[in-house]
Amino acid sequence: MSTVDDIFAQVPRRTASKLSRNGPGELGNIAKSRAADEEDRLFAQKSKALVEQKQREFKISHGLIVLFFLWIAYTQAVGIYLFTRGFLLTRLILESKSECGFSPLTASEYQGSLGEGCWHPKTFDKAVIVIIDALRYDFTVPQVDSDGVPSKEHYHNNFKTPYEIAVKNPQNAILLPFIADPPTTTLVRLKGLTTGTLPTFIDAGSNFAGTAIEEDNLIDQLNRTGRKIAFMGDDTWPALFPGYFSIEHPYESLNVWDLHTVDEGVLTHMFPLLHPDNSSSWDVMIGHFLGVDHAGHLYGPDHPAMAAKQKQMDVFVQDLINAVDDDTLVVIMGDHGMDPKGDHGGESQLELEAALWMYSKKGIFGRLPGFEMPPKDAEERSVNQIDLVPTLALLLGLPIPYNNLGGAIPEAFIGRESDQWGNLAHVARLISSQTERYQKSYAVARKEDLEIETRTTKIWRDAEEKFDAGSSRDTPEGWQTIYKSFISHQKENLKVCKDLWLRFDLLSMLLGIIVLVGSVILVLVYARAITGDLRDLTGWLAGRSIAGAAAGGLAGYLVHYASISELSQLNLALSGSSLGGILTFFVGTFTFWPRVRHIFPTSIFSVLALLYTILQGVMFAANSFTIWEDRILTFFLATFGALSFCVSLRQEDPAMRTLGASQSVIFMLLTRLSSLSRLCREEQMPYCESTYYASATSSVSSPLSLLLLYLVAIAFPPIVKSYYTGTKSYEGPAHVYIGFALRIGLMFNAIYWTLDSADNGEWVDIPTVALKRAKHTIAQVVLALAFIAGNILFAWVQPCLNITVEETAPSATGGGDSNTQPRTSPHQPAAAATSAQAPPTHSMTLLGYANLHGSRSFLLPLTWYIGLALLQKPLGGASMAALLWQILALLEIIDSNSLSDSPIGPVILAMLGSSHYFSTGHQATLSSIQWETVFIPTDTIRQPWSALLVAGNQFGPQILATVAVPTIALWKQPAKQAGLLGRVVRVCATYVAYHATIAACTVLWAAHLRRHLMLYRVFSPRFMVGAAVLLFVDALTVAVGVMSVRWNFLAVGEVFGLT
Amino acid sequence: MVEHHSAAQTVRYSHPVVLLGALYASFGSLVQNPPLMLLQLLPVTIAVQIAHVATCLGSSSSNNGKVSKEGGKKKPGRPAATKGKAELGANVLSALLSLVLAAVMGTPVMFTVMVLLGAPITTHLAHTALCAAHLSILAGMPLIYSYDVQGAKWRDIFSLKMPVDEEYGGALGACLGAWLGAVPIPLDWDREWQKWPVTIIAGMYAGYAVGRLGGLALAGRVARFN
User: Fold this and answer.
1) Number of domains comprising chain A
2) Domain residues of chain B, as ranges?
3) ipTM field
4) Scanning A115, A620, A754, A1007, which has the fewest C-beta atoms within 10 Å of its C-beta?
């Protein structure tokens, strides 16, 4: 070993002597030079063979480490998959369709026909159904403050016509709050509005790719009864109902930057069709406007663009009612509302409250006693969105869709004098009977015992008995009683269904939890319990575990054929393989049992690391702690800063003491400063004030934050540089990355967001098209610079090192003896290692040796930062700069307190990532996803790039932290230290262990609290964030973290040899 | 360094009780109007602390925080009552001096630390400032009295390298208690006492009392971090 080291130790000298020989004025003695050449040749041969052997060995052990981390990632992904499968709700989809001639009632009662209405006499021949996306109820009713002064918000008192008509001519129109079933995404809402049934949670994920509806629905019934449908607007419709429309004009729906194309398209195509000449070409017309929704997403509700959109819609309503004839029903509705920021997806009250307006020139609408005026808000009175399904079906003479759970909207059936209780009771009975029929088929499909009468069936039978009794059928009051009995059946049934479809697959959930918790323990044991160098052990463990996984998978597969379990083949194989792998890992640890110690911490910082991890894991059990996670993280991080300040003061060396203490102060300051940037979630109100956007009701950034971005562009590169100059590492590629790429990239970021603000705020008179092109070009350049050029270059560049050879006066010692070693002490704190060597008149200086690995390895997070910062809003970009600075401060704190082996480094790094998740305007809620990121570098949606852009925005801070993980183990570490690779592996594993613990805890709490009121608002979204972050972290740790180590070690090894 | 004659002993053991009692008695009004009550409570705390340091910690110039055993043994032998009276006067004077130092230097430091840990910046400034004042008087003043401005000692104090005694234990306890006091704030219990900085104050006082007991139990120990 020592001879090998000797040879490698000479490499730098050789490099230097080559350099100096090529230098000017050095070609003196030819004979001497020849001799040296001969010597060089022999040496080169010997060393080349050794270098190659070393490289081979390194690549093999590195490959095995990658394999091991891949296996961990696979196991955790399986755990999350199994849990998710059981946790996210499932509902059986019945194929049955309602038939026109087959009413749920007995044959002796009303038997209609296609002409007069299938199950009930129809009221209208034609209908115009218009969806104004995100039409919240308060947009439609006059809003006045307590003094009676009309509200000045941009989103109030613009859309007035519906309210005015409903008040002035009550028999012509009704206006009601229209409550959506969450999740409030358009795709899910359209399913609900056409099928009349409840969404399952998993539907939320498929918003980007609408798939055809298979269940019975209104559109299908219209088709089956031979009606012609004309459609124009949001292209989600043709995706849900391919081939159903006889006329269709779909428009791209997801481009939120475009407020007008869809709306103009609807207006252009709708009015010609309303002309009497064209009336035979359609029976039902569907229009879907997106302008209001997009204005909300882009600017938030309180913006002039929103007012303009609402006024345009108001004019549209006036035009529409002038154009329709007496036999046409007009329905105008929102599919969901919007939150105070103009986004939607979740289940806050504002997102759920849409508006429903029904209008007919004939005047058929009545009022329920006590509700003569349109309600002020949903608390006063509301109808469910699914209630529209049976109502529309019966008004148009269609059969009620088979799986409908909604009830009748009574105003539509009670008659213009509000006295037709008999009609209303008949309608309610029809709807209840169909629901009851559906429930029976559902029970059959689930193979349940039909003999046991359910509670709802009993209510239904009681109502039927009342109806059959006949005595009450003579008076309006009697009918009213019958109506109420059926309505209570429908309501009770809906409630039961909501509970029923919260039925979890406990076995699958349990398997997922076991796999996940097992993987957490295994990573913890691997990262913290095994002593010594992990490098040699990992390969061995990887082989065993993967073999175990294969065997387990096979076993699971076979269990399926033994038909012991009901789980599907795939799930059995997956759970078998992950459990098999985990088991073999633990069995494997017994073979090196003496190297395993307990994982309980012994030093203050490892106690802190464990404490932080446990506290965060536990706090997700309480909804209030989960809601306030952002503040809690700030509190924890600042506490770490304070403690590291105190501990740094313990250092005896004044330089180290000052470094540690000052970096701790910087760390604390930056933590607190970046916590000022936040986007409050609804539950934090009223104790929280959002700062991420210009105001609480907009999603535009404030111009001030642009200035911040310029400040970052100017001031940040020198700050990063200062962390390099301390060890004289600002050499070689550091110039390219920090001096060039960082400056240019950040300046381009600032320019991009300036143009974006100019575009949004219409500051300048440049046409939008030109601005857009400029924006997109800049964004593409930055992304290419950061993610393509930056990464490729990283694989090739030299370490941040400069070797200078100086001519000095001949020294007394030394001579031509080539066996003298250049003693470059790795522990030398200063940057330069000098060696006075043959020829004696030259001395060599290595600049940047003290941080050889760290300075190069940090270039990777640096280049990723440039790209990830672009994807954030201006304030988020500044927050990401703070994150990178905090990482640098953390590196210095770790180095000055010799904590590179402590778990605190990776844990704090991970917490930094989580903390900046919040300061970049995110929350653990669906509505805080910034979808508009897709359109930063381009105009169109192109998968998988669009999804990657959204992910880069959503998890940007965590991604940046993950990329920086290996640097923790490498920063200022001696280049030739033994076992360095093993330490990098340990740090990476600790980092994964932290995230796995958090994800496992969110999973455990979500499972435990699955009946909690706040499940969908708090626990379930947090579980999804935790699981998604873990998957990203796993993938990136392998793909970027561990891989970057390979380039780094090989590049350093090229110069100094590998250990 | 703790004097062992009876008056000192009484003050020494009763003063945490008095402090906690005062806090308990004023808790209702503290919840109703935190800044006002904190301001009214401040003189009480100051008086108790001055009485405590002047009687229990001996003359500040004579002991420089040497291990307490020696100081404790020396004191009972001191005879002259008149000398004791003069010394008490001098002690009160230096107690007042350390009070000024704690108020002027300690409060801004504590305020900054509280803000860095997440206290509101734009609102509740009086709340936070008074809270910081309480902490610096509770935790900082006895330490300033004992060690005035010796740099090396203060470095030991901040780097948690001091051998633990009652005063240092009390100071650490107050800080830790204030830290723990932040825990119930975010809970959705809708209690009036969850408002800023009631829980911090409660945690601080309780922590101070417990810390003193802990300091007594662990006297002479030095925190080891590895």
Assistant:
1) 3
2) 6-217
3) 0.88
4) A115
